[in-house]
Amino acid sequence: MTEPGRTSGWFSPRVRLVLARVVVAVGIVVALVALVTARYGFLFVAVIVIGLGAAMGPGRRGKR
Question: Is the pTM of this model over 0.85?
Fold first, then answer.
């Protein structure tokens, strides 16, 4: 069992939020490169990466 003050899982919500922002930022960079070079396969990958980054972040914050 976990302690009452600790969150379950590997990462705290703050770490998950930072990690999700990094993944979304990488996706945006890939999307910009794809648009500049007209590589639409990369654009497809960028959309997938941005979606995964959005899904990784904490959707809502719990009560404090």
Answer: no
